[in-house]
Write a sequence for this structure.
């Protein structure tokens, strides 16, 4: 059930952040966090590929 706790934690962060930012700032943060998530996914895939190449 760790994933449920993670979702609760992320939901709490999202609500708290949204209360303190203007809509434009919130949109920019969302875009940047999405880009960060995609970059981390690429890094993880590269690491997995290196491990399977050994």
């Amino acid at each position: 059930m760790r994933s449920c706790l993670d979702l609760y934690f992320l939901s709490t962060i999202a609500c708290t952040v949204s209360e303190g930012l203007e809509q434009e700032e919130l949109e920019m943060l969302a875009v940047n966090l999405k880009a960060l998530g995609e970059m981390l996914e690429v890094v993880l895939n590269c690491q997995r590929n290196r491990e399977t190449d050994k």
Observations:
- Residues 23-53 form the longest helix (31 residues).
- The mean pLDDT is 93.
- The CA atoms of residues 42 and 48 lie 10 Å apart.
- DSSP finds two helices and no strands in the chain.
